[in-house]
Design goal:
The chain is mainly α. The protein is built from twelve helices and two strands. Helix 1 packs across helix 3. The mean pLDDT is 93.
């Protein structure tokens, strides 16, 4: 299976897994971030996911490869719901408030279900998101990126326990630590992508107060630093499969996305 097809199969597989565990409406929580995590967990797992040809709710007449029957997909479905629901509950900005209320209400039942499955993780994530929300009301800084970077290690640590119990402590620690760098990268890429919109609408952004050129220059440097750290970590992990896909995402994909966003262009969807 070609690499892009494999990644898309993981995306569709996660979307369907969310539907199986939580229903149709919660499928809105599917994301590329959790798709990558599901594929990363599968790549490090002793067993592979099943691949089946199935149709999609958005295109019922065409069948395509879907990854199925793997605990990594089950875990990432739970995390998709939990992270989206908790973040929606904490979205209290002027523009995000209505959207947050609607999303929180739509995912409430699913969110409570996921919370019951991971009570300690849910509590930690909720506290960090509240801390993030408060930081985003203060002076523009990169502190929120550090806070958001503390969320993914919690998720990665739980992923090791739920999916990769056979992973050695050294590799488990390396994987968990990589969550901080990936979390910071994700936060910063979103921030610089939203910079012009936030500036135009007088909304908070970590790069507020800088010119567009200065903001892009600083963001570019910070993002490169995170990419270098991620490259070093992911190069050492013991892949059972899909190592080339993970390599392409981290070593080629992240810099490519950075270049597109820094140039002010729009990203294409799968």
């Amino acid at each position: 299976m070609k690499e892009f097809t494999r990644f898309r199969a993981a995306y569709c597989g996660l979307c369907k897994q969310i539907s199986e565990q939580y229903g149709q409406i919660p499928r809105m929580s599917v994301s590329y971030d959790l798709t990558f995590l599901s594929l990363l967990l599968i790549s490090l797992s002793s067993d592979d996911a099943q691949v089946e040809l199935e149709s999609c709710i958005l295109n019922p007449l065409k069948k395509k490869p879907i990854l199925k029957d793997h605990k990594a997909l089950e875990f990432c479905a739970d995390m998709s719901i939990l992270l989206t629901w908790l973040k929606a509950k904490d979205d209290t900005g002027d523009e995000k408030k209505i959207k947050g209320v609607i999303m929180s209400a739509a995912l409430r039942r699913s969110g409570l279900k996921a919370k019951r499955l991971y009570p300690k993780l849910s509590e930690k994530m909720a506290l960090l998101l509240k801390e993030l929300n408060l930081a985003e009301k203060g002076k523009p800084s990169l502190i929120p990126a550090d806070i958001f970077g503390s969320i993914l290690p919690e998720i990665f640590s739980s992923a090791v326990a739920a999916v990769l119990s056979e992973l050695t402590p050294e590799f488990a620690a390396a994987l968990t630590d990589s969550g901080k760098n990936l979390g910071r990268w994700t936060y910063l890429i979103d921030a610089i992508d939203d910079y012009e919109h936030d500036t135009h609408n007088n909304e908070w952004n970590p790069f507020s107060g800088l010119s567009l050129e200065q903001a892009r220059k600083e963001a570019n440097q910070f993002l490169i630093e995170e990419e270098i750290k991620l490259d070093r970590t992911f190069a050492l992990l013991p892949y059972e499969r899909d190592g080339s896909i993970i390599y392409n995402v981290v070593v080629l994909g992240l810099p490519s996305v950075r270049d597109i966003v820094i140039q002010g262009e729009k990203l294409e969807k799968l």
